[in-house]
Amino acid sequence: LTEDDWKLQHALEHWHKEKTVEIFGRAILVDMGPSLAMPSEILDQIVECVHLKVIKTVGQLVHETCWNDGNQYGKSISVLFKLCGQIYSP
Questions:
Q1: What Rg value do the Cα atoms of the chain yield, rounded?
Q2: Does residue 53 sit in helix, strand or coil?
Q3: Cβ atoms of 76 and 12 closer than 8 Å
Q4: What distance, in Å, lies between the first and last C-alpha atoms of the chain?
Q5: What is the pLDDT of residue 5?
Q6: pLDDT tens-place values along the chain, 90 residues long
Q7: Greatest CA separation found in the chain?
Q8: Reduced to 3 DSSP states, what percent helix, strand and coil does the chain have, rounded to the nearest 5?
Q9: Which of 37, 49, 55, 79 is deepest in the core (most CB within 10 A)?
Q10: What burial class does residue 76 get, using C-beta atoms within 10 Å of its C-beta: 0-12 exposed, 13-18 middle, 19+ buried?
Q11: CA distance 29 to 37
Q12: Whole-prediction pTM value?
C-alpha cells in the first residue's frame, strides 16, 4: 500500500469509530467496537478498491463492497478519499 492508502486506512478507522459513537453511543463502541457502523472487512475492501482505482462513484462503492450503508454514507466517505490524496468523483 502507498502512503496515501495508509492515510485513507487511518481516516476510515477514525470515521467508523466516530460514526459508531454518533449512531450507537460510546458504550457500544467500548463494548462491541466500531464494526457496527462499518465492518472492518468493508473498511479494508474500500482501501484496496481505492488503491486499485476501482471505486470512482458511490454506486461503485456499493457494488464493489456490497456494504448496505454505502448509499447512505458514500458521500462522507468520498470526502476522506480526497483528503487522503485519492482520486474520486462523486
A1: 12
A2: coil
A3: no
A4: 23
A5: 87
A6: 788 889 899 999 999 999 999 999 999 999 999 998 899 999 999 999 988 888 878 899 999 999 999 999 998 888 888 777 765 544
A7: 36
A8: 75, 0, 25
A9: 55
A10: exposed
A11: 10
A12: 0.85
Q: How far apart are CA 60 and CA 19, in angstroms?
A: 22
Of residues 90, 80, 66, the one with CA closest to residue 5: 80
Q: Taking the mean position of all CA atoms in its chain, how far away is CA 19? A: 10
Written as nine digits, the cell of 52 is 486499485
Q: What is the DSSP letter of 89?
A: -
List own/partner pairs for 48-55 with CB under 8 A and 24 or more apart: 50/5, 50/8, 50/81, 50/86, 50/88, 51/1, 51/2, 51/5, 53/87, 55/88
C-alpha cell at 63: 457494488
Output the CA–CA distances (angstroms, integers) from residue 87 to 5, 10, 80, in the order listed: 11, 17, 10
Residue with grid cell 487522503, as numbered in its chain: 84
